[in-house]
Write a structure and sequence with these properties.
The protein is 64% helix and 0% strand. It is mainly alpha-helical and 277 residues long. Helix 4 runs antiparallel to helix 6, helix 5 packs antiparallel against helix 7 and helix 11 packs antiparallel against helix 12.
């Protein structure tokens, strides 16, 4: 049928980008799906694809799930922490607020697929759909804000940059204020902060300034997402297949998930050759 895709995608809860990709694929192949349903005489389903309101809703869902998938990709990775995730989440919240304001004014330029449907039908955005979109964006904003607890401004400022002049010493607990002042006036620590990431910097400061570093590490160390767990499950599925169901995968998993490159030649040289019979 000269379509851009050969097959439809099926939804699976195991794959965290699945739902958005399924909706996008349905939208991109809506004409081919409609023709197939007509051949199969599925009149009730054909009626949905002929409904302009239904097509506009699907287009909007395809757009918003595309944005959610982009956000999900930003929240993945091995070297991450809550502060990086908060930056991405608050940026997305700001986008939602901006989109809601623009939608109230009838501007839907940020929703590419919905704009395409509106241009094809040559009609304006009706008030009912406008209210639906703004209500959905508002509820989505509330959901996103529940993902991570908000840190106090003083705590966040300390973790992000302990050398910031705007950080008031009185906001630091009394029992670590002296240690904090020692850190702030440590020129070698200041130089290290300029070249190291926040996580590596606080790990390096733990031996010298343990109390201050502990406050920062309690924010940075906890897992901010389930990415590492999902990566482990994916690796397990690839290694322990049906034909290898009795395999002890402990060492294999460790080798597959580590960032350290194994010295294969050295390991092979230390192996004892099988004795001849």
């Amino acid at each position: 049928m000269n379509a851009d895709h050969e097959v439809l995608l099926f939804y699976t809860a195991v794959r965290w980008l699945s739902k958005g990709n399924v909706i996008n694929r349905v939208f991109e192949m809506k004409d081919e799906i409609k023709l197939f349903l007509e051949i199969q005489e599925k009149k009730d389903l054909v009626a949905q694809f002929e409904d302009e309101a239904w097509n506009k809703r699907v287009a909007y869902l395809a757009d918003i799930f595309d944005q959610l998938n982009k956000l999900n990709l930003k929240l993945q990775g091995r070297v991450t922490h809550v502060l990086l995730f908060q930056d991405s989440l608050w940026a997305f919240v700001s986008k939602l607020q901006n989109w809601r304001q623009k939608t109230n004014l009838g501007n839907i330029a940020m929703f590419e697929k919905l704009c395409g449907v509106m241009d094809e039908s040559q009609i304006q955005l009706d008030q009912f759909l406008k209210d639906e979109i703004t209500e959905h964006l508002q509820s989505l904003e509330k959901e996103v804000k529940h993902y991570f607890p908000e840190l106090s401004q003083e705590q966040e400022a300390l973790v992000r940059n302990p050398f910031c002049t705007e950080l008031d010493v009185s906001s630091i607990p009394d029992d670590i204020q002296d240690e904090f002042l020692d850190l702030r006036n440590d020129s070698s620590a200041r130089d290290l902060f300029k070249v190291k990431s926040v996580t590596l910097f606080w790990c390096a400061m733990y031996q010298s300034y343990s109390k201050v570093s502990m406050i920062a590490l309690r924010v940075l160390v906890p897992f901010a997402s389930t990415y590492l767990c999902e990566a482990g499950f994916s690796t397990l599925v690839n290694i322990k297949t049906k034909n290898r169901n009795r395999l002890d995968v402990g060492d294999d998993m460790r080798l597959a998930l580590t960032n350290t490159r194994p010295r294969i030649s050295k390991l092979a040289a230390e192996m004892q050759h099988q004795a001849s019979h």
